Structure formats: C-alpha cells, structure tokens
Amino acid sequence: MYNDADVEAYAARLRSADSAARALAADDATDGVSDWGRHSYTAPQADRITRALVDALVVESDDSAREAIVNALATLVGWDLAPGSEVARALAVPRPGRDSAAAYWQGIEEWARRHPINPGRD
Q1: Three-state DSSP class for 66?
Q2: pLDDT tens, 30-52?
C-alpha cells in the first residue's frame, strides 16, 4: 500500500525539469501495482497519481520519459485505478507519428472502448 507522502513525492518528481527523473517517477509510481491491483492505491491516491501522470504527459517531449509515463498510465488503467475523466484527457493528447508507446496506448484505448467515460469519478 502506498502512503500519501509517496504519492505526493511521485507527483512532484513528475514535474521535474529532468526527463530521466520524470521517467523514473512514472516507473516508481506503478512498481507496487501488481496482482494486488486495487490494494496498491486508495481511490484518492489513484486519482492524484493519474492526474499527475496525465499532466506530465501533456507537456512531455522526451520519448523515453513519454513512454514511461504512458506505460504507468496503462498499468493504472489496466487495474481500473484511473478515473475515466483522466483517461479521456490522456487520450486527447496528440501523439507523435512514430510512437514508442503505441502498445501501451492500445491497452488504454481498449479499456476506454469498454468503459463509458464519465466526467466525474467512474
């Protein structure tokens, strides 16, 4: 189980000026999300970290960091931890022509097709 201080630390690191730090923060933010899935984050924590990941994605220009962020989002989406409104916001972010995160996007898009996206918490 993550604690609130961990979540805030990941969110702060996702705002770092260093792309390597952002990539590592994205990886660290989902390291504990495993077969226990829903037990790794509380709903408010999952909302906070998902929002931080999408905020980082919106401005990310480094391919490696972008891939790590999308991978982390895909992990949260796969465990139904990400709020639909944030999934919709992530899906609206323009993607590069050659996207190293294409496989991760596929899982996110499949989830979105199966779940109606509610502007509030779903």
Answers
A1: helix
A2: 887 765 545 678 889 999 999 99
pTM above 0.85, yes or no: yes
pLDDT for position 36: 55
- 94 Cβ neighbours under 8 A, 6+ residues apart: none
Q: What is the pLDDT of residue 35?
A: 55
Count of helix runs (H) and strand runs (E) in the chain: 6, 0
Cite the beta strand spans of the chain per DSSP E.
none
Instruction: Tell me the C-alpha to C-alpha distance, in Å, between residue 64 and each of 31, 40, 94, 102, 115.
Output: 17, 25, 16, 13, 29
Tell me how far the alpha carbon of residue 116 is from its chain's centroid.
Answer: 18
**Do residues 77 and 107 make contact, with C-beta atoms less than 8 angstroms apart?**
yes
